[in-house]
Amino acid sequence: MKTTAFTAKHILLQAKMAEFAGFNMPISYSGIKEEHAAVRKNAGVFDVSHMGEFILKGPEALPLIQKITSNDASKLTAGKAQYSCLPNENGGIVDDLLVYCLEENKAYMLVVNAGNIDKDWNWISKHNTENAEMHNISDKTCLLAIQGPNATKILQPLTDVDILNLKYYTFAKGKFAGVDNVLISATGYTGAGGIEIYFEDKDDAANKIWDAIFEAGKAKGIKPIGLGARDTLRLEMGFCLYGNDIDDTTSPLEAGLGWITKFSKEFTAKEIFEKQKATGVEKKLVGFEMIDKGIARHDYEIKDATGNIIGRVTSGTQAPSLDKAIGMGYVKTPFSAQGTEIYIAVRNNLLKAKVVKMPFE
């Protein structure tokens, strides 16, 4: 198993560790419910250094990004980021990703999912007929996400960047905890506010930054948070998780990601998506809450009142902030309207649920 620069810290803090995307990662420390509440109400620190980072440079970088992603990266100016996806030739999703514009028309950072680093690199390389300069910096890049309503207040004394006024989906580079050249962004995956910091672990930077964050937040109750709470937090917001809610067989339009699918440019599978937009999709990703007692889990069948299979669950949990069981799943389009009653097959029982809007309330 791979480790991050913070693995020894997690073990010292007696985190419950497990393999995730080939990495030895903390799943929880004090418990998912408590950690979830810490992020929603205060501030928590996630080690997400397992994520992948690619740098694309040169005059051909933007044309390559435009060709392989669904969103329109030409709209990005330096200091702005964008959520996007890499469509495959069949209209599925190779991965979802973030595109950071480091220098307009010249340099970009792509942030990809941990389990897809090699797959994405090979996919982008295959389509790099323009010979854009490409660098895979995943192994040397550390990434911490400090999330929660009090995160920026706690961390502001550690940096010369004005993080209190950092707008959503923007970023800046500066000094953080005495470490130079730290990229600080606001693209959080929890819906609770906060920042992410990207930096190279040289000259003991990882230890310096981790220790400084927890020293600054000690009196304010900042906590380390595992991937378990990351999942419940993102699910409450209705954010997709690759491998669960989107994959090589789901289209962005089916997943409710039409807003990152821009037809003003040429890109992979554009014609397929144009047809889907014109004729409608056969299945849609919906949010639902349980009416009957029970929790929907990944891959459970979704049925109609007469027991016909109409879809499958992609994610489900007992939502800690909402105190109810929620989930996401694909259903046939006629069953996707808000308020529609659906049934989740849990063992031999059909448990009633209803389609609701996301983020969940």
Concise account of the structure shown:
With 361 residues, the protein is of the alpha+beta class.
Protein described:
The chain has helices at residues 7-12, 32-41, 61-68, 117-126, 151-155, 205-217, 227-237, 270-279, and strands spanning 16-20, 23-28, 44-47, 52-57, 81-87, 93-103, 107-112, 133-136, 141-147, 171-176, 179-185, 194-200, 223-225, 283-290, 301-303, 309-319, 324-332, 341-346, 349-356. The two termini are 38 Å apart. Strand 5 and strand 6 form a beta hairpin. The mean pLDDT is 98. The chain is built from eight helices and 19 strands. The chain is α+β, with helices and mostly antiparallel strands. The chain is 20% helix and 34% strand. Helix 2 crosses helix 7 (227-237). 46% of the residues are buried. The chain is globular. Strands 10-11-12-9-3-13 form a six-stranded mixed sheet, sandwiched between helices.
Derived structural class: alpha+beta
Shape summary: globular
One letter per element, helices H and strands E, the order comes to HEEHEEHEEEHEEHEEEHEHHEEEEEE
Helix proportion? 10-25%
Strand order of the largest sheet: 10-11-12-9-3-13
Beta-strand content bin: 25-35%
Strand count, sense and barrel status of the largest sheet are: 6 strands, mixed
Query: Which regions are unreliable across 5 or more consecutive residues at pLDDT < 50?
Result: none
Count, helices: 8
Return the average pLDDT rounded to an integer.
Answer: 98
| Euclidean distance between termini CA atoms | 38 Å
